[in-house]
Amino acid sequence: MSNDLSQSLDTMRTALRQLQEGEIGVAALCGAWRAQGAVLSALPPRYEQVAEDLLGRLEAGSLFTEESCSFSQHDLIDSLHTWLDKASEPVQRLGGS
């Protein structure tokens, strides 16, 4: 199970990298993250709430130019990286039990 969860986090990391490199758009990133329901449901509920909040703001921000939006895409991407780092800790603990 933990291996599957680690693979889900890797998929999420890959999608985030692809967004940063311009290979995919915001909609594809959000779809890829939301498709990882197993990892989201295995983590404490707050993780899913935070991830959904960040994805929602990223989607909203993608509808506007950077100047006219109150959400900085760069800051949201940094927050998603932080989310992944924090989510890795309980996934590793699940693997150790």
Can you tell me about this structure?
The protein has helices at residues 2-20, 26-34, 37-42, 45-62, 73-96. With 97 residues, it is mainly alpha-helical. The chain has one domain (2-96). Helix 2 runs antiparallel to helix 4 (45-62). The longest helix is centred in the C-terminal third of the chain and has 24 residues, at 73-96.
Please summarize what this structure is.
By secondary structure, the protein is mostly helical. The chain is built from five helices and no strands.
How far apart the termini lie comes to 11 Å
Number of domains: 1
Weakly predicted, low-confidence segments: none
Give the overall pLDDT as a whole number: 87
SS-derived structural category = mainly alpha
Number of helices: 5
SS elements, strand count? 0
Layout: helices, strands, pairs:
Elements: H1 2-20, H2 26-34, H3 37-42, H4 45-62, H5 73-96
Helix pairs in contact: 1-2, 1-5, 2-4, 4-5
Considering the chains and any ligands shown, give keywords for the structure:
97 residues, 5 helices, 0% strand
